[in-house]
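[INFO] parsing input record for PAR1 protein
[DEBUG] input buffer:
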Amino acid sequence: MAMILFLVFSLFLQGALGDIVCEELPVGMCTFSIASSGKRCLLETQTPSSNGGTEAAYQCKTSEVVVKNMPEWIESEECISACGVDRYSVGKISSDSLIEPQFTSKLCAPACYQNCPNVVDLYYNLALAEGTSLPELCKIEQTNPRRAMIQISSSGSASGPVSAAAFGPASTESLACSPASI
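[DEBUG] output buffer:
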């Protein structure tokens, strides 16, 4: 009996403490928020047919991106402004903005970089996915903003097509030493 009361009380207490659920957040607080589950919230466009209206509407959804050590986070308006991000960004946030010098200078400025761990964590991971590191990018940004843009643009994560000849032998002589020729 005590165990049942404990479980019921735990569920009641969890709801009373106000867990953050992305689907329950207002549209204006969705992007750059993290649910109690540790997953990032994502603003999506709802098609007119799915919401019964004639205009597209927005809806906050839970993404599959998990953030460690930052559950229940709603980014402050100060950080949104300091970092130069848009609270109404729809869909997954991409690394494209990292090649914009104006954005990178705001992201790397102390007002953002030292005070807004959620935004910095997001773009840190996006920079890693592009084959560079945000601290390195910010260091370059302080000394040579144009080089920072080139660094992320040429990170090589989106390399072009490779010709089939690149994987073939350089000459027929090299085949003589291969295991298949013995």
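[INFO] The first helix runs from residue 2 to 16.
[INFO] shutting down worker
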